[in-house]
Predict the structure.
Amino acid sequence: MTTTRAMAAPRETYGRTLLTMAEDYPDIVVLGGDLNVSTFVHLWRDQYPDRFFDFGPAEQNIVGVAAGLAAAGKIPFVSTFSVFGTGRPYDQLRVLISQPSLNVKLVCTHAGILTGEDGMSAHSIEDLSLMCSLPSFRVVTPADSVETDRAVRAAAAIHGPVYVRLPRAATPVVHTDDYRFDLGQADTLRPGADVSIIAVGSLVAPALDAAAALASQSINARVINLHTLAPADTDAIVAAARETGAIVTAEEHYVHGGLGSVVAGVTARHCPVPIEMVALRGYTGSGPAYELMAKNGLTAAGIEQAALQVISRKTT
Amino acid sequence: MAAVNQPALSVDDMRSTAQALRRDSLEMIFRAGSGHPGGSFSEMDILVALYFGILRYDAANPGWPERDRFILSKGHASPGFYAVLARAGYFDRAELASFRQTDGLLQGHAHPMTPGVEMNSGSLGMGLSFALGHALAARLDGRNYRVFALLGDGECQEGEIWEAAMSAAHHQANNLVAIVDRNRIQNDRFTDEVMTLEPLADRWRDFGWNVFHCDGHQHAAILDTLRQAMQSGPSVVIADTVKGKGVSFMENNPGFHGRAPNPDEYAAALDELAR
């Protein structure tokens, strides 16, 4: 059961949202690494050339310069592909930004496996794990274009480091224009008491579709968009465990270190319940983006199956 | 403009001050039982020339926006740096006893929790990028401060140094001065044995930098060279120094890159530094 939804590219929304903040935030500067058309910060580059710096594909330096700019009072937005922006300069993110908690915003596109045909090296399936391991970073995975706009605004409004994870592909729009985003507060999209589906990013729309399919089997699934993994909304996760007794997590990321690990960590401490994790089990090769999603079970059907499985494990 | 060059010293006073601050550094390392004396001693004359002859700052207001920035990229040489910061008035000299101690103000590698420290450090190669960020911010804000980054010579084996060098020239960071503490020794061995750095000056020049040389232990030469380098950047000053400078058995000895002296060595070193 798939609902037809409008499609929109979060990375394009990012570029357009940034432009609208230029006057309200005179300290915003944008740093790129020769992927500025792909990340859509070329819109900013062309309009505010004095507040834009290109460094070529030299990500360690980009992050280091961003830290210096932030220490001098600027609000640097650093944008490149997720694989290059998190893995390559991990040490700079750790030492120069996370440890002194500097006000740098790392907004990366082309995360997950929706980079499809570009293949294994382009598939960013470890970035949430890396970024959640840095104590000062807030880590946000918007579910759609609307949430991308809100998340980017929230990132600028708060002081401290933020990572925003965006895909390459256009994704289904799940939020309406009046959507209110609260960084760190889970977004419950559908009530339900039989099982909870906690999803992020590109798996939020399939989670809603899975819940609709389960409803036709008289199973009421709660759907939670846990857009912020750090700091995670512990109360929402514990309530889901306590009130529904079983959880499915769904993410376009390696099974280790992302959403599934966060939810399992919270429930293990506060309210252990069965959990099934819809996530990547390892690397996957080239292929059309949504074929790769299907091949790896990152679909509404995959989530539905996981929900039936986890319900069968409930003890009461 | 707030107070600057607090306090300015004559070249003669710089020499005695540097020796006194070497003693302070060594005492910190001895008490902590660990730390990096070799680089603290090689950099000391450069730091003294900077803090008591070049830099504009207000130690009572470390965040003064117009301050010149000094960025210690070779953050392991923190004992020498801390001794200078205390002498410059950023914190009380008694605070030196907290070096490497639990809940102390003075971290093993320099961290901005310490007044006067701009950058977190301890992973090599990052300081020039960070300095470039400050240099670009000065341009954006229309401020006239200058930015100085002190690099180790072994540190120049890090790729990020050259990413930063290329981009500083590209972005015309004319308010940026790098100083290389060319003491020819790194953690394990002599730099020539680990990884060839020469022709170091040509390499910087090829990356678009103005290159200057000086004796890194002659204060008058350091001051003169830095003033020339500040005219139009990005500039690099390759300062020829001696690792462990001031203590005969530490000088040019790779064994004292990163270990504390034992009690006998400590006493002998203090004696030499008191002469």
Q: What stands out?
A: Chain B has one domain: 11-274.
